């Protein structure tokens, strides 16, 4: 970009309204972007921090499903320097009484329901993001790619290993997307879309309106919006190198924490590009004499008197004497009572596991790796669940939050 040319204005729209059905009990009462990661961080911290480091200061968060935890966490955007008089963070819940009212039926529909607000705001470009991916990216580089290509849409892509059928699988030649298959049954190749899209604003809004008139409804971006632009417009590719992981399933969420603990995962504390968050106001973690903690993360306010191995311990968690936690993620204020065992589990906030209880496999501390189908036998307990003294919750069970 020439030195004398002004940078285009960018509006970031963070799509945080999905129900997160693949996360089972963990998202029954909260939006997926509010899920903790690495103890005291949350998934939404990742795109918000990337935006701040990229000097994108106009950020709208589109909400729908169970937004209360999410609202409490992001508050006014202060941890990300988005608490501004002009611009900054803006929360957009569903509304009624005007065009676009009601609940969206997908992320493309969500964008269309904000069309009038976007037109009034008048950005040159609209950057749309999801909040269930772990990655570092300077979005200014995406803008440069977009401008150089004269694109209608620029899609951020990455190469991944394993099953790609739950992603958007793309083909690219000479920096241009030539084919787009949305969650194909028989995918070709390993290049996928990361759900980071940069649109020319007029192209985006005009295309959404045209598709709505043509089809009568808008659903997800992969149903009509992106396929139409790939076929009829100019869609550029911006390749993301380095770590990227979708954590939108229980297995991938658990695996991402294990990668973090064993090396090669997503380090939230990288000093060159840190992930900011609203830190819990609690005292430092306490490890009692006689406790064992190995290869684990302990958040503020945690108290460990037992054994913790290969696990992430959230704020305010208590692991009592004789209790053992292995290969698990324990969220805020969980209590693991004396002599209980927790193995390969995801435990939501304020759960109590009774004395002598067993949750998951109690198998000499082996770390269970996923097989080719992604089945790790992960046990999941929803928020505020109560496991009685001596009770056994079998591996792979998913128990919801009490009614």
UniProtKB/TrEMBL annotation:
It comes from the Bacteria. InterPro entries: ADP-Glc_PPase, GlmU/GlgC-like_hexapep, NTP_transferase_dom, Nucleotide-diphossugar_trans, Trimer_LpxA-like_sf. Signal peptide: none annotated. Residues 12-261 form the Nucleotidyl transferase domain. Pfam families: Hexapep_GlmU, NTP_transferase. One of its GO terms (molecular function) is nucleotidyltransferase activity. Keywords: Glycogen biosynthesis, Nucleotidyltransferase, Transferase. Residues 291-362 form the Glucose-1-phosphate adenylyltransferase/Bifunctional protein GlmU-like C-terminal hexapeptide domain. The keyword Ligase does not apply. Belongs to the bacterial/plant glucose-1-phosphate adenylyltransferase family. This is Glucose-1-phosphate adenylyltransferase.
